[in-house]
Structures are given as structure tokens and as C-alpha cells.
């Protein structure tokens, strides 16, 4: 693992990150710096490498070369659980919950894991007041109080996505990665999801992959455009929308489709 980075002020920093699968190069020297406390989106056409980028950051895939720093320290080579404990949590494109547990139990499991508490015969989890209080607080934060006792698998799609966001919060991470959090939602559900994300990431650092440009431009402070393994541009949403190269590479395709 690399040494401590000298630069400060960045919650997440990628330096010359490459990733190859055999002879296929997917990431081609990505440089990306996310300021602490900002909301940052990565956009790009299908096949650009956005999910691979998230998998590299969260430790699901090893980098081929380059470095990734979280709050100034390299996380290259760390397993996902250690990266999570270092302060980074992520969601996935496909909802990743425990469908046969209640909504409350899903959140409580995450809180238990953060406190490194295990179930025990002589210490029933129902009596762990601090754990239960924290889970209830997150339950309220994501607006699922009324569904606390319901099985997670019985929630609507948008409610399951809200639960998954809640599960990222149980880790106490200050850097949140959301992979297409509004995919498959109606316009009304999307609007509700945006407000939820805005609320729960207040004071945290958000990096998201999102195809809905209205979501990106209304929610994020900065946007990076990833095109076939390269960062084409990073700027404010307005500047990105007016960038001719970006329009030709990606936004033009979205407008034409």
C-alpha cells in the first residue's frame, strides 16, 4: 500500500489509475480529485467504465496501476470491508438488501457491523439500546418509519433504494458512492430520491454515477465525464453542459436519443 498523500482537502483522489482485464484496457490513467463535502457525479456513455471505476474505488477490483487515496491515505490493496471501515460506503446498481428481514433489521445489521457487535445468546440484540436507537434514527432519516416492521422484500422499488441508501449510512462513512440511485424510477419517485440524497449527504462527500442529467445538474457541485476509460472533462454542471467535446461524446447522444 502506498504512503500517506501530501495533498489535503480531498476526500477521494485517484492518480493515474489504470485497470486491464487481460489485454483489454478499461481504465487508461484516470485522474480524479473529489473535494471533501462536495457532491460529484461521473457521467458517460454505456461501456465507459463507470461501474468499473466504482469497483476499483471500493476495492471490489484491484487496480492494475496507479493510486487511490481516501481522506489522504492510500486504500490500494485493501479489501472492501477495510475500505468501508476507513470511511467509504457504496450502493450498487442492483438493489442489495436482505429481503427476508424487516426494514428495521436491515438497518440494525449495518449498525451492529459498524460497532463490531455480534449476536449472542446472553446479549439479545433487542436489548442493545444504543444499537436500536441508531437504527431507528436512520430509519427516520430515510423516511421509512411506517415500514419498519415490514419485510424489506415487500417494499416498493423506490423504497428499497431508500433502504439501501440507509444501509450505507449505518456504516458512519463520510464518503458515499451511489451507483445510479434513481434508475428505473418514475419522475415523482426520482424527485423524492433527489431530496433524500440531498438530505442524507449533507456534510458528507458524495460521488455518484447517474444517467438522468436533470438529477446530476440539480444535485451535484461538479461533474466528470468518463469516456472509454478516460476523464474527458471535470467542471460545474453548467460548464459541462456547454462543453462542445462533451456534447459530441455524450450529451449529444443523450439529446439525440
Strand residues, percent: 15-25%
Fourth CATH level, the homologous superfamily of the largest domain: P-loop containing nucleotide triphosphate hydrolases
Spatial order of the strands in the main sheet?
Answer: 6-7-8-3-9-10
- In CATH terms, what is the architecture of the largest domain? 3-Layer(aba) Sandwich
CATH third-level topology of the largest domain: Rossmann fold
Overall SS class = alpha/beta
Radius of gyration: 19 Å
The largest pleated sheet is described as:
6 strands, mixed
Task: Name the descriptors.
36% helix; disordered N terminus; single chain; four-stranded antiparallel β-sheet; alpha/beta; nucleotide-binding; ATP hydrolysis activity; 257 residues; Rossmann fold; 2 domains
Structure description:
The chain is an alpha/beta fold. It folds into 2 domains: 172 residues, P-loop containing nucleotide triphosphate hydrolases (Rossmann fold, 3-Layer(aba) Sandwich), CATH 3.40.50.300; 70 residues, no CATH class. Helix content is 36%, strand content 24%. The chain is built from 9 helices and 10 strands. A 6-stranded mixed sheet has the order 6-7-8-3-9-10, with helices on both faces. The N and C termini lie far apart (44 Å). Keywords: ATP-binding, Nucleotide-binding, Transport. GO terms for molecular function: ATP binding; ATP hydrolysis activity. One of its GO terms (cellular component) is plasma membrane.
